[in-house]
Each structure stands twice: as structure tokens, then as C-alpha cells.
Amino acid sequence: MSQDKKRILSAIQASGQLTLGNYLGAIKNWVALQDEYECFFAVADLHSITVRQDPANLRKNTMDIFKIFLASGIDTDNNVLFIQSHVSAHAELAWILNCYTYMGELSRMTQFKDKSERHATNINAGLFTYPALMAADILLYQADLVPVGQDQKQHLEITRDLACRFNGIYGDVFKVPEPYIPKVGARIMSLQNPESKMSKSDPNPNGFIGILDKPDIIRSKVKKAVTDSDGIVRFSEDKPGVSNLLSIYSACSGMSIADVEKKFAGEGYGVFKAEVAERIVECLSPLQERYDELSKNKDYVEKIYRESAEKAAYVANKTLRKVYKKVGFIPGR
Ligand code: ATP
Ligand code: LTN
Q1: Does 277 map to a domain?
Q2: Is residue 198 one of the residues assigned to a domain?
Q3: Is residue 184 over pLDDT 60?
Q4: 117: domain CATH number?
Q5: Contact 8 CB / ligand 2 (< 6 Å)
Q6: Which atom belonging to ligand 2 lies closest to the Cα atom of 44?
Q7: Which of 159, 237, 291, 319 is the most exposed place for a label (fewest CB within 10 A)?
Q8: Is residue 138 lining ligand 2, measured as CB closer than 6 Å?
Q9: CATH number, domain at 239?
Q10: 45-57: average pLDDT
Q11: Cα 177 to ligand 2 centre (Å)
Q12: Which ligand sits nearest to residue 150's alpha carbon?
């Protein structure tokens, strides 16, 4: 791996099946960044248990996400794709960072407030200290840049604060990371409620397109997508459903929104929706084919995640050893 490339770390929680939003908003950008940067991409399974998970589902989701990362075309010779719980340094550094994180700053996190409302019967300590684990993910790898959506910016701020606080006490231990928010990041909205983001934890499956949804399912979900009654294919704030379908068409085809509007001028929503569905199918089917191949080749997938965990652990443990020493722990291994 190149020493002079800047380093990137990002992760996706294993809290459900990945959506077209995760693909267009995150994974597609990762694929584009992999040659310019040295990348570490993780399936954040430790984070996902801050919300109750069925064990069999968690196993399936984690493995599916890992295979989707591979199928999306990330080159594992030069980048590291790994499963967070395979590198114990994440949990170890998270504990230490917990002891440097204030209750006050954690209580200001909007994701904690949102998730506590949505899971009112399970407001656990892990959900509260989630940002310390996310900071550990990032700081262990001395990452320069962290590609995240707008909703994660607050977690990145706390990561930077923690890095500076720790460095302030003990000297230069952590690199202070910068957020990397893609300029043209497609923000894909729910098909059923286009005012809110397409999310893998949406209880209504018609709200999201799963990356692994088969063509007929995709066609039927797009057909049911909420639009409006004026019948004009135009991007506008007061037409969130149609605008979202335009964004999806544009992101999947590479055409500009203005060109897509021109293409469908005078056409009804029926024709437009059918074409949107086809663009999604075209965008996802090469990935789905590679995913199916990988599913037949379990030994290969296992080999990759085992080797990657070793590569990740090598880098992570180097930082952890330094932290242990600085804090005053006696070296035992
Ligand atoms: P959850 O609903 O379980 O909290 P999510 O589907 O919103 O999850 P995250 O795991 O929070 O997804 O996000 C993983 C990455 O995918 C982030 O970088 C996020 O910005 C991106 N992402 C998620 N949903 C969308 C979306 N609808 N449009 C664009 N990017 C998205
Ligand atoms: N919290 C993030 C997922 C995540 C992450 C990370 C992102 C866990 N660890 C480290 C970037 C860097 C989310 O919910 N999208």
C-alpha cells in the first residue's frame, strides 16, 4: 500500500438491507475514491446493536453488506474492506475515549435524540456513547478524510474534539480528521414519503429500493412511488416525489436533471416512472450479478474478510499501543 496517499475511513451500519440511497450516496463515491486514497471501509456491526437486532438477521445483513462492498468494485489489494467486530481495537479504544467524552456533548447529538424517540423502550448506554465508538473507528486508522453524509457531520465534529482533547493532554497521538462531504452527493428520498430520506430502517419496504431488489420488485416499487397531480416531469421544491425520481434517474444514468426534464417533456408519469425503474435496474444489475457470484463462493469471501481484518488490525493496534502507553497502562503484550 502506498505510503504517500492520504487515508480515508468510512463505514456503514449493519442495521438492515442496503438501499439505493446507500449506493448512490455512499458506496458509489467510495468506489470513485479508491485509487486516489488509501481506503479503509468497514461494516459497522458493533454500532448496529445499539438498536435491538435479531442475531440471524444481523449475521445476514453484515455478510450481505460485505459482499455488496466487494461486488461494487472496491479493489481489496489496495484497500481494506473489513468487519468492525473482527478488529477488537475498536471496542478497546472506544472504552478509553468514553472516559474522555462528556455527558453534555453526547446529549447534544441529534442522532441520539432521534433514535431515543424511535426506540423509546431501549434507550441504552451504547446508543448514548455511540459517537465514542465512531471516533475510535476513525482515530485508530489516523484517517485524513472521512466521507459521510450530512447527518454524520456532528459525529465527526465530536471525533475531532476528542482527538484534539487527547492530543492536548498526551501530545500528538491522533490525526485530526476532516469530513469529506461529496459535492454532488445524491440525497435520495423515500419513495413513499419524499420529504424524508430513503432509509434502510424504514418499516415500509415500498419506501426504499434495496440494492439487492430484483427487477420486478424495483418496477413495482417505482410504480407505487408517491408523486403529485399536475402531471409535469419537472424538478421543483413543491414537487418532492417527482424531483426525487428525477434525481434517481440522473444519478443512475449520468444525465443532468435538465436533460432528463427535456427528455420527458410532454410525457405522463406512467412513462417516466417506467423509465426510472429501468435506469435503476441497469445501475444495480451488474452489482447484483457479482453479488450472486460471490454468494456461490463463500470460501473466497471468508478469505477476504479474514485477511482484511489482519491488515486493519495491524494498523489499528499500532495506534492502540501508543494510546495505552500514553494513558499509563503497563505493556502486557
Ligand atoms: P439507518 O436508517 O439504519 O440509520 P441509513 O440507511 O440512513 O441507516 P446509514 O448507515 O446512516 O444509512 O448511512 C450510510 C451511508 O449512506 C452514509 O454515508 C449516508 O450518508 C449514506 N446514505 C444513507 N441514506 C442515504 C440516502 N437516502 N441518500 C444518500 N445517501 C444516503
Ligand atoms: N455512524 C455512521 C456509520 C459509521 C461511520 C463510522 C461512518 C460508523 N462508524 C466511521 C464514518 C466513519 C452512520 O450511521 N452512517
Answers
A1: yes
A2: no
A3: no
A4: 3.40.50.620
A5: no
A6: 8
A7: 237
A8: yes
A9: 1.10.240.10
A10: 96
A11: 14
A12: 1
What average pLDDT score do residues 272-277 get?
Answer: 98
Average pLDDT for residues 62-85, to the nearest whole number? 97
- Reference 89, options 49, 138, 48, 52; nearest CA is 138
Domain span holding position 161: 7-181+298-327
Contacts for 48 with CB less than 8 Å, ≥ 6 apart: 13, 14, 15, 58, 61
d(CA 268, CA 243): 14
Residues 224 and 260 in one domain: yes
This prediction's pTM: 0.93
For cell 416531469, what's the residue? 233
Residue 46: pLDDT band (50, 70, 90) is very high
pLDDT number for residue 183:
63
Query: Quick check: is 224 catalytic?
Result: no
d(C-alpha 216, C-alpha 2), whole Å: 43
- Answer yes or no: is 16 within a domain: yes
- Verify that 76 and 158 share a domain, yes or no: yes
Q: Please give the average per-residue pLDDT across 16-37, as a whole number.
A: 93
Same domain (yes/no): 227, 111:
no
Is 200 in the active site?
yes
CA distances in angstroms from 87 to 148, 152, 240, 317, 320, listed in the order given: 21, 22, 42, 9, 11
Identify the nearest ligand to the CA of 53 by its number.
1
- State yes or no: pLDDT of 1 exceeds 60: no
Res. 2: pLDDT tops 60: no
